[in-house]
Amino acid sequence: MRGNASKRIPRSLQMLKQCQISSGQIIMKCTCKDVWLKIWLPLQYQNCANSTQVLCNNNGLLPPITEIEKENIGCSASVKNTSLVNSSICAAVFAVITCAMIVYKLRFELFISTRTVMNFFRNPLSPSSVIHDIYISSNEDDELIRKWLLTSLVPCLEKKGFDVFLFFRNSTIGKPWEQETIDVISKSRNLIIFLSDDAKGNQQWNKREWNYAWK
């Protein structure tokens, strides 16, 4: 397309590779809308560097657009400000995503740390409000765990002077199960949770029990 009288280069050409276009030398009145040419035009070291050259008619001078500063072709400071704002937004989004990933990965550690700080400022339990030293949570449908608790662990703890509450052994007959769990946990100094590979137990109840223990 050499030798044409073009005074403007449509930006749609930006979709093509620079070396696919050969317009020769084009002299035009450069504006801020033509800034994209500074990036799109072939670089000096490319074989097609002279295929298209854009010269800006600036008071009789014809400098190449690739050598003109943005401010000299009508770009106001707002363009810089917009770039700065866009960069700030990108940095903020990246920081938020990074923080979210870190929080998600360390969520359990953060939960425990938060609880530790809260307990530091919370008034300690008075000795009179503590009834049991240890509350044990386990899958009561697992016969092996029941047998081990009753014949080994609990007798060992009680022999050392700990008051142990084992729900299937110490719960009050006829009292609402859930309410008694809340009452006993709130008056126990420590909680021991035993996990089981047996999936036949009441897992939903265990989750609620652990939730009460956490609170």
Could you explain the architecture of this structure?
The structure is a single chain. The protein is α/β, with parallel strands linked by helices. The chain folds into three domains: 63 residues, no CATH class; 43 residues, no CATH class; 88 residues, Toll/interleukin-1 receptor homology (TIR) domain (Rossmann fold, 3-Layer(aba) Sandwich), CATH 3.40.50.10140. Helices cover 43% and strands 12% of the residues. The chain is built from seven helices and five strands. The chain has a three-stranded parallel β-sheet with strand order 4-3-5, with helices on both faces. The chain is rod-shaped. The termini are far apart. This is TIR domain-containing protein. InterPro entries: TIR_dom (IPR000157), Toll_tir_struct_dom_sf (IPR035897). Keywords: Membrane, Transmembrane, Transmembrane helix. Pfam families: TIR_2.
